[in-house]
Specification:
By secondary structure, this protein is mainly alpha-helical. The protein is built from seven helices and no strands. Helix 1 runs antiparallel to helix 4 and helix 5 runs antiparallel to helix 7.
Length: about 160
């Protein structure tokens, strides 16, 4: 495994573990969520079913995404195209989250910490996965292993 592949694996593992940490809040008592919300300076967290649902389901989604990234980290050479695609998604999602955070009136520390971090992570995944793929000779699977040839026409490949 070359240097870029080792760095990409480390980035994926660190990102995955941080996202998997979101699994714990899925099971927090709602009172803990309210206390954390207030400790972050966001005011009282409304005790409504939709608020609790969104908080728990978003945490669960982050944990699932973390599990996917951890799985991909086990073979970054084989999964370089998918990791690169996740990098593109990170760039778009991070920019979108900056807008959402600002439009939602979240404090500057939140808006500057969330979206830009996702953009940087997306850029790292995109660049490193591209280098890993290039170092592997840009090899694509043979048609017998990957019957959909048109899948290789995507811009992140």
């Amino acid at each position: 495994m070359n240097r870029c592949a080792r760095i990409l694996r480390a980035v994926c593992v660190i990102a995955a573990l941080s996202m998997l940490a979101a699994l714990a809040p899925v099971f927090f008592p709602f009172a803990w969520m309210q206390a954390i919300h207030e400790a972050l300076g966001l005011g009282p967290l409304p005790e409504l079913p939709i608020v609790e649902y969104l908080a728990r389901s978003l945490s669960a989604f982050y944990a699932c995404y973390g599990a996917l990234v951890l799985y991909l980290a086990f073979d970054v050479v084989r999964h370089a195209s998918l990791i690169r695609f996740l990098g593109v998604l990170g760039l778009v999602f991070g920019a979108l989250m900056v807008w959402v955070d600002v439009a939602s009136g979240l404090p500057p520390y939140w808006a500057l910490g969330e979206g830009p971090f996702i953009v940087v992570l997306g850029a790292a995944l995109y660049v490193l996965a591209g280098k890993v793929r290039a170092a592997a000779g840009g090899a694509r699977r043979a048609p017998a292993e990957h019957p959909r040839e048109d899948a290789h026409d995507a811009p992140w490949n």
